[in-house]
């Protein structure tokens, strides 16, 4: 018997969210940052370590390191995710585990530290890492072509900016988007960040700042790229009925998708119409029992600024091919038609691989965003990744 | 330096001969790249590397202005090229023998081969010299 489209809807609630310190140099190691965020999320949920019986993290750090650091005892479900669009697999899988009764309270953690040379020039360090990964893949005897090593590195194309920027160019050329228009995204999010004490970059920027910002992979500029920071975000997920006993207003997960856009590799992907982390078409809205018009606030993965108009289109939040128009004239600003990335997003709060976006969605729906609060926020959509693969979660106020 | 494996061997050996060699399912005729031993469309293992013309079209590209790999100096172009043999058959490549500012979407290109180390040939793409351009043997 096929599962019903709505069998997951509103079964899981987010009871707690937490952050570690966020900084360009946080002064804490990777595991310790994850622990700090996890502890803050558990406290925010009104729970204690013995209450947490599930844990999901993107590696690194490794899940057992977190179990030890947070002092968990008696986990009945865990997930050590090595790969995926940001925090999406860990968020979604933890929700599935809770919905399936594998655990009663799942802690989701996503940690990241700024890449550092370790004594090598950055490019050398990156190359060294890639060689290690290549050797590891071979040693594991996978017997498949290791794409990065053979078909990207030799072209200087193994990094995400080099793989993404061509799609920015195609989007801009196809739709006649000017750099000035694209600037609306980083400018708006920096404005939001100035209202967010957690955000690492808070100084307002102008169109001139954007145009003066140097090219990384033309047309992608430095100000188009998310901000590398040290930090972690975490959340506690519980069964919906349990959330009502906990301190904060419950926020339910109404639906989720995790998927690819036809082709799952950056350079093989080609169809803008199939972007959306599996949510293209009606999928996410049918599962949520909602429509794009119901969304009050959106936290859309801004690994690069051009992802934002693409996400708006993919999720039906604006018309196809009109994302670049929708981002103009304050529509996506707090107080506008559809506020986006109210924390400043990855571009200005800092890159937390989507965990920051998830937490901000929850805080908005709880009404706890203070000067950033979107009035009467009842439904939020949040996304991770983009283009060839990604994920989407729809949340609603309990 | 590309480190090859059993799936990609035909590709890199073809490159040594200045030929672009792409896997093709001999049952359903589907071209497969990245190379793998089993056809993702019909699941046949009757897959082997075949010569392709090397003619393609630039789908899109970027101009890298930053050192991302040691020994590869900016500015250089990273492009997605669609080979004429099949819609969606994409290769990631640089565009060589062409100033970056002259590269354009929908530009016609052809395969060429760059010796990046002794005995190691790397397939690349350049502006198409003629309508009859083809890689390696006809």
Q: Biggest β-sheet of chain A, characterized? A: 9 strands, mixed
Helix content of chain B: under 10%
The overall average pLDDT of chain A, rounded, is 90
Order of strands, main sheet of chain A, comes to 3-2-4-7-1-8-11-10-9
Spans of at least 5 consecutive residues with low confidence of chain B: none
Basic shape of chain B: globular
Shape of chain A: globular
Largest binding interface between chains: A-B, 45 and 41 residues
**Number of E-state strands of chain A:** 11
Give the termini separation of chain A.
Answer: 30 Å
Number of helices of chain A: 15
Query: Residue-averaged pLDDT of chain B, rounded?
Result: 90
Q: Given the helix and strand composition of chain A, which structural class is it?
A: alpha/beta
Topology:
The complex is a heterodimer of chains A (398) and B (138).
Chain A (H helix, E strand, L loop, with lengths): L11 E8 L10 H15 L9 E5 L4 H8 L6 E5 L6 H12 L6 E7 L9 H18 L7 H5 L8 H16 L3 H4 L1 H10 L13 H6 L2 E4 L1 E2 L9 E9 H4 L7 E10 L22 H6 L8 E3 L7 H8 L8 H4 L18 H4 L6 H12 L12 E8 L2 E9 L1
Chain B lengths: L8 H8 L3 E6 L5 E2 L14 E6 L2 E10 L11 E8 L6 E4 L14 E10 L2 E8 L11
């Amino acid at each position: 018997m096929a599962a019903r489209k709505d069998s997951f809807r509103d079964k899981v609630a987010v009871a707690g969210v937490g952050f570690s310190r966020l900084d360009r140099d946080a002064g804490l190691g990777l595991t310790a940052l994850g622990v700090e965020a996890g502890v803050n999320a558990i406290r925010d949920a009104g729970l204690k370590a013995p209450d947490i019986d599930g844990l999901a993290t993107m590696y690194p750090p490794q899940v057992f390191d977190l179990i030890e650091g947070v002092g968990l005892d008696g986990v009945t479900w865990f997930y050590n995710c090595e790969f995926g669009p940001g925090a999406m697999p860990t968020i979604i899988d933890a929700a599935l585990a809770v919905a399936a009764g594998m655990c009663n309270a799942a802690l989701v953690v996503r940690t990241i530290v700024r890449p550092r040379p370790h004594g090598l020039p950055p490019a050398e360090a990156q190359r060294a890492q890639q060689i290690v990964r290549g050797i590891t893949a071979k040693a594991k005897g996978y017997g498949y072509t290791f794409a990065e090593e053979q078909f990207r590195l030799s072209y200087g194309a193994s990094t995400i900016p080099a793989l993404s920027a061509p799609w920015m160019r195609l989007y801009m050329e196809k739709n006649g988007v000017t750099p000035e228009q694209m600037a609306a995204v980083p400018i708006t999010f920096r404005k939001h960040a100035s209202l967010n004490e957690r955000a690492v970059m808070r100084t307002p920027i102008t169109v001139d700042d954007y145009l003066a910002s140097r090219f990384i992979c033309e047309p992608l500029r430095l100000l188009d790229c998310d901000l590398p920071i040290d930090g972690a975000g975490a959340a506690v997920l519980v069964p919906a009925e349990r959330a009502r006993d906990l301190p904060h207003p419950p926020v339910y997960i109404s639906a989720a998708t995790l998927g690819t856009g036809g082709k799952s590799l950056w350079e093989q992907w080609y169809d803008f119409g199939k972007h959306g982390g599996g949510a293209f078409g009606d999928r996410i809205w049918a599962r949520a029992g909602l429509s794009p018009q119901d969304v009050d606030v959106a936290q859309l993965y801004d690994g690069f600024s051009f992802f934002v108009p693409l996400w708006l289109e993919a999720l039906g939040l604006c018309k196809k091919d009109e994302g670049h128009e929708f981002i103009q004239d304050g529509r996506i600003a707090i107080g506008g038609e559809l506020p986006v990335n109210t924390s400043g997003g990855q571009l200005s709060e800092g890159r937390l691989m989507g965990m920051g976006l998830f937490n901000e969605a929850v805080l908005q729906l709880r009404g706890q965003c203070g000067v950033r609060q979107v009035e009467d926020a009842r439904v939020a959509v949040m996304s991770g990744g983009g283009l060839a693969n990604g994920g989407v979660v729809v949340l609603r106020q309990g | 330096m590309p480190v090859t494996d059993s799936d990609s061997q035909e590709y890199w050996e073809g490159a040594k001969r200045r030929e672009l060699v792409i896997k093709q399912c001999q049952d359903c005729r589907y071209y497969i790249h990245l190379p793998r031993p089993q056809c993702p469309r019909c699941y046949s293992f009757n897959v082997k590397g075949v010569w392709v013309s090397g003619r393609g079209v630039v789908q899109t590209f970027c101009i890298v202005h930053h050192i991302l790999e040691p020994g590869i100096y900016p500015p250089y172009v990273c492009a997605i090229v669609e080979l004429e043999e099949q819609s969606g058959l994409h290769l990631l490549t640089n565009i060589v023998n062409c100033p970056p500012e002259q590269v354009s979407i929908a530009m016609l290109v052809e395969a060429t081969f760059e010796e990046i180390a002794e005995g190691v040939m790397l397939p690349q793409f350049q502006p198409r010299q003629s309508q009859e351009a083809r890689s390696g043997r006809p």
